[in-house]
Amino acid sequence: MRDARAQLPLKWVRPENIHLSLKFLGDVDEARDSELRKALQRAAGTSGEPRPLTLQIAGFGVFPDYHRPRVVWAGVTPDPGLELLQHGVEQAFAPLGFPTEARAFRPHVTLGRAARDARPGDLTGLEAMLAGTNFDESVTVDEVDLMQSTLQPGGAGPVYQIKYHERLS
């Protein structure tokens, strides 16, 4: 698989940057950090007593489709606890001016993005490569983080900083 990955015009996410997004807030003034922390704390407690979640990561796919792949992802099997947590995040942040997402929550972990200059034909073979790759692992999530991402010049990818985290255990 390594040879096939190297030939495709994809920028792979560095392992330390792999995460599951519950909500994207966009550009937010640092003066709002306190209210964002309180919202995250409320969200983490909306499903009753917070406790760790065990999530299954399995299968691969792309957004929007294999004719024009822009994002390569690993799927996260829907889980009631994760759904409640994500819904709690939506509800806690909506009063702060962050509208609830119109699309259904599709939990996934972004693994890579097509290079800016990649044409759809450049990614021929991606579907077969992903179909021929098996991955099925469980992970335990025991905290939710409020993250700040800062894009780096020259396409170096984002740098993530944890602004606050709330334990689920």
Entry summary:
The chain has 169 residues and is of the alpha+beta class.
Describe this entry's structure for a reader.
This protein has 169 residues and is an alpha+beta fold. 22% of the residues lie in helices and 31% in strands. The protein is built from four helices and seven strands. The strands form two sheets. It has a five-stranded antiparallel sheet. A hairpin with a 7-residue loop joins β2 (53-63) and β3 (71-76). It is globular.
Strand content: 25-35%
N- to C-terminal distance = 37 Å
N to C succession of SSEs: HEHEEHEHEEE
Given the helix and strand composition, which structural class is it? alpha+beta
How is the secondary structure organized here?
Elements: H1 2-7, E1 10-12, H2 33-44, E2 53-63, E3 71-76, H3 80-93, E4 108-114, H4 126-131, E5 136-141, E6 143-151, E7 158-167
Antiparallel strand pairs: 1-4, 2-3, 2-5, 3-4, 6-7
Helix pairs in contact: 2-3
Which properties best describe this structure?
five-stranded antiparallel β-sheet, two-stranded antiparallel ribbon, 169 residues, 22% helix, 4 helices, single chain, Cyclic Phosphodiesterase, Chain: A, 7 strands, alpha+beta
